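chain below, 547 aa
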Amino acid sequence: MSTKNGSTPELPLLPSSVEIFDTTLRDGAQFEGISLTVDDKLRVAEQLDWLGVRWIEGGYPQANPKDEEFFQRAPSELKLTNAELVAFGSTRRPAGKVDLDPTLAALVGAGTSTVCIVGKSWDFHVTEALRTTLDEGIAMVAESVAFLKAEGLRVFFDAEHFFDGYKANAEFALRVLEAAMVNGADCVVLCDTNGGSLPHEVQHIVSDVVSFVGGATAVGIHTQNDSGCAVANSVAAVVGGATQVQGTVNGYGERTGNANLMTVIPDLTLKLGVATLPEGHLDRLTVVSHRVAELVNLPPHPADPYVGASAFAHKGGLHTSALGRAGGATYEHIDPSVVGNHTRVLVSDLGGRAGMAMKADEFGVELDDRSVAALSEELKQLEAEGWLFESADASLELRMRRATGWVQDFFEVEEYRVSSFHREGPAMPEGGLDVSTEATVKLWIDGERFSAVGEGNGPVNALDAAVRRALNGRFPALERIHLTDFKVRVVDGGAATGAVVRVLIDSTNGDRVWTTVGVDSNVIEASWQALMDSIQFGLVHADDLAG
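prediction:
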């Protein structure tokens, strides 16, 4: 939004900095598909500390044995330099006693200097979910905070369902916060637990709470993404005066997830000038995002703002042409290097010659204007046949090299054969099933013929094993190169079993990942094409892939 003269309207007085509270190990671990071992949690905590977040919520020490073990091992195995661990729990039970409450006892026993407890701030939840009175709900918060403070702990209070509660009964919601504050809570965190609030509501309500608190304690924000507004709501809360922001790496969390700190952090720092991480740590954002994704065993989402592989990727010819003439500022809202990412030009049938030339420069391949034009037309025709190079940079680079006259001279393939075996029935032990694949490869190296057989759990695995045996240790770089992923897509579904298929293979040497592509009506031939590109790319770059 701009004023009539084009200037940006003034924002309320913003805090100079906020504290980032990461709850990936607790709330993030509730995301469907995530199951962390204790070792996983320790490695994630190391990444968060390296990034520079202020608080790491380690989990719920009473909830399960893994979280208990995590807090037992953390003091000796984690060497935190930027962050502090936080143990999470809840207030005492209705009609219970704080000194007999197992949850509060577990928090004290967790060994952290800081704890975070959750309590109800929506009257509906107190009377219907807890089945107790509003006065008892207030007492549960007050007594729990007081008990933990008496144990010498720093206490953050998560006001669960605060925004729904405030809209339904503001008086009660504020009484809950007051009960936490007067008993020593160091921060009251307003939670949009159901994720249904919108940014304008969040900013207004947070501003009201900040005025109500009057500086007596800090105000934080914790948002869920059920309405797609978790990041926007977090930013709105800071505009409203919040000084602690809770969220998770890559937005992991219950249902649709939590506020994605990989977006919130640069939004606050780069767009609003609010400090979030230690000086010089913002460019670690992309690396941490991808490392944590690997640790939780979920693929990074390419379209994630700032840190996604596609965040600064350009495909359209108009875009790539402008990038080539005037630089990234034409279609990039920030310099990607600031967050540890980089510009990518995607070569496709939508792109032009400028994009092709830029991509060649990126690969370090010298293409003249004639070669660029010819290759551009060739790739457009190939994409019409089902090829896709925007996700297969390694195959694209090899085609560009061939356009210069380069011919790979590592080896020459004579032939390959693949046989699959399926055995079942009474002859098998206990009526079992045996499925295996065998591949034979014949190739030439420096005028000498080699033949090898490989076995595997599928044709690609078997072919890969056979090629490696045939190469017979002549290329040590292959020892570090491994296939990590294999994707098959039917390009022409109308042809049923005779359809053209596209195969994408991801490979790595442990430090770098590259993707190759093959297309054919025969899935084994398409796989072979992608496999050959993968191996040849690895050999071409043996020196720079070495580490």
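The mean pLDDT is 88. The chain has four domains: 19-295, 313-380, 385-408+477-547, 411-474.
thats it, cya
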